[in-house]
Design goal:
24 helices; single chain; about 5% strand; about 625 residues; 3 domains; 10 strands; mainly alpha; three-stranded antiparallel sheet; globular
Length: about 625
């Protein structure tokens, strides 16, 4: 180690690396502890409880590793390069600029942060799961208008940040905002009872509220908000810093409903698959998919041609292309946001960037991390989540395992035999030679036989694993699985620990941190379990959301302001970058397998609502205890 002329220490490269190793190890360990338990739980459940091997285990393992590495890089870069600027802007912007500048900055910050959210990409990726004839509006929003969807969600976040900053500056209560916005969302939700197109985007709309409150939006918005609160001052400035995450969760839901209502005016109602492909309805089909080329893609995608096996081969071949795409998307998400913050910092505040080397290094690490996370999410989290979700129905019903299908060429129907059950039902089957003296009995399904090519496509079946078809034991297993996954994933969320410390401080110890953490984790687990039940029994989502949020509005009226802020913000804290992709993928995979279910959205909306209920109930209890202590103390003096 040597002294330079400028008075700075010059550390040899080898020593620098030795100093960095423990730091990097701690950061990777932190993310590994958040990701690994949930992933291991999914793998154990599928391989041991369901008795099915994990397909593409090697590729998924690489993906999970990239998620851990990417998340560690991304969050470290965020806190090193972007967060410090956000905190300074929050403190100094109100002192050096007018209210219109703050409004403009807040809106663009919210919009830009949405594009930078790691989980926002999974919304666009899930468009391929939706059948255009079953849910035309949902298909259009996730495919043809996916860019518009993200823009509307970002606009909703931008408006929410503006409302939050104005609330901080004017020291307004959060209650009027909640009591105004949530009933409006419930009106749109009830609309779904009368319009199937709106019904099928309801789960997506509410889930978007959870997706937007991730590791980019929440820290940046809170840093800006708490900075403004400190500048404005006031006795309740600490607790007033909460609440903006609630608005950032609610306004995007409204924005998605508004986009859906606009697009719905030019779309047909849901129809049968045969009607969709009927030449007489071709104009309506094109209004959904957009172009002839896209119509041909849809035809190939949803035809019985063994697409799943094809995609498995293509996925490995396109890994390099996926890397290029994800890094480009990461740069597009991070760089415009950081450039905007730097321009405001230099031109509006007219200050030099502090620690330029750290800031630019942080920005570079953020882009690198988000790119790695995107690849890992595509080939790790989403794959394992979809795989487990699509196989969960085997617990209570027989399902096809498309990934293991086999093509039998030169098939001769003369070998097909018939059998009859005691109740007179006839089924067909044939024998396939597996080895020297081994023969496998395979059911013959007419729709899987291509007579022109003499090709038979054998798709293995599995289930019901627990009891007979429709048995209660299988349903219970799936719901219990969902609860444990939600509970465990929430305990791993680092933001929840910080929220618990703040609540314990505000309640002067009457509301313990551990009590809050376990209450919120239980709420998330219960919410995901209810969401899974919604898909299994195909319950319309308005039957869950409307009564639940009506109860939350009632509790909000009787709760203290600080618990309202913290309670409604807890919904955003619990939906992190690991939980969101896994739950979305699991829900869509489960929905794809359950007969009659059109879409698998809505689980996140319930996972967000239940923690609010837990905190508000505990807040009311803590407030009563505090008042009793005050009264007893007053009586003793």
């Amino acid at each position: 180690m040597e002294n330079t002329k400028q008075g700075k220490l010059k550390i040899p490269l080898k020593q620098s690396l030795m100093m960095l190793v423990p730091f990097c190890k701690d950061k990777l360990k932190e993310q590994l502890s958040a990701v690994l338990p949930v992933v291991v739980y999914l793998i154990i459940f599928q391989s041991i409880i369901l008795g099915m091997p994990v397909d593409e285990a090697g590729l998924i393992s690489i993906g999970i590793g990239l998620v851990v590495l990417g998340l560690a890089f991304f969050l470290e870069g965020l806190f090193l390069g972007i967060m410090p600027l956000g905190e300074i802007l929050g403190i100094k912007l109100p002192l050096k600029s007018g209210i219109f500048t703050i409004i403009a900055f807040s809106f663009i910050l919210g919009l830009g942060a949405t594009y930078a959210e790691p989980s926002i990409a999974i919304l666009k990726a899930n468009g391929s799961f939706v059948k255009p004839w079953e849910a035309p509006l949902l298909y259009v929003m996730l495919n043809q208008y996916a860019g518009h969807l993200v823009a509307f969600v970002g606009t909703g976040v931008g408006i929410a940040v503006v409302a939050g900053m104005l609330r901080f500056m004017k020291s307004l209560s959060l209650k009027p905002f909640i009591l105004a916005v949530i009933p409006l969302l419930l009106i749109f939700t009830l609309w779904g009872a009368f319009d199937p197109n709106i019904l099928y985007i309801t789960g997506l709309a509410w889930d978007c509220g959870a997706v937007t409150t991730g590791p980019v939006t929440v820290p940046l918005v809170l840093a800006l908000g708490i900075g403004i609160c400190r500048t404005v001052g006031g006795e309740e400035s600490d607790s007033m810093g909460f609440g903006v995450v609630t608005l950032a969760s609610a306004f995007p839901v409204l924005a998605v409903f508004i986009l859906g209502a606009f697009l719905n005016t030019s779309l047909p109602a849901p129809m049968q698959q045969s009607d969709f492909f009927d030449p007489a309805n071709h104009a309506q089909a094109l209004s959904i998919v957009g172009t002839e080329e896209k119509f041909s893609e849809v035809t190939r995608h949803f035809s019985d041609t063994g697409l799943a096996a094809q995609e498995k081969v293509e996925a490995a071949e396109k890994l390099l292309d996926a890397a290029n795409t994800n890094f480009v998307e990461a740069a597009r998400a991070i760089l415009p946001l950081t450039l905007f913050i730097i321009i405001v910092f230099m031109l509006v505040l007219r200050e030099k960037l502090p620690k330029k080397d750290e800031i630019f290094l942080g920005i570079f690490i953020s882009v690198l991390g988000l790119g790695l996370f995107g690849i890992g999410m595509e080939y790790g989290l989403s794959k394992i989540g979809t795989q487990v979700g699509s196989r969960l129905p085997a617990s209570f019903s027989a399902i096809e395992i498309n990934d293991h299908q086999e093509i039998i060429g030169n098939f001769n129907t003369d070998i097909v035999q018939k059998s009859i059950t005691p109740d007179g039902k006839i089924s067909e089957f044939f024998f396939k030679k597996e080895g020297e003296n081994k023969y496998l009995q395979i059911p013959f399904v007419e729709k899987n036989y291509d007579r022109s090519k003499k090709i038979y496509r054998y798709i293995p079946h599995i289930g019901p694993i627990f009891g007979e078809n429709g048995g209660k034991g299988g349903y219970l297993i799936v719901i219990l699985f969902a609860f444990i996954m939600g509970f465990g994933a929430t305990l791993a969320e680092p933001a929840l620990n910080a929220l618990g410390m703040k609540v314990e401080e505000l309640s002067v110890g009457t509301f313990k941190k551990t009590t809050l953490i376990y209450a919120v984790a239980t709420g998330v687990g219960l919410g995901i379990a209810i969401g899974a039940a919604k898909i299994i029994w195909n319950i319309q989502i308005f039957w869950l959301l409307v009564p639940f949020y009506a109860l939350l509005l009632l509790l909000t009226l009787f709760s203290d302001e600080q618990y309202v802020n913290i309670g409604w913000d807890s919904a955003g804290v619990t939906t992190g970058p690991v939980t969101v992709p896994l739950v979305l993928a699991m829900g869509l995979g489960l929905g794809e397998r359950v007969p009659g279910v059109v879409e698998g959205f809505g689980i996140l909306s319930m996972a967000s609502a239940c923690p609010i209920l837990a905190v508000l109930l505990m807040g009311i209890s803590a407030s009563r205890k505090a008042r009793k202590l005050q009264n007893s103390g007053g009586g003793n003096r």
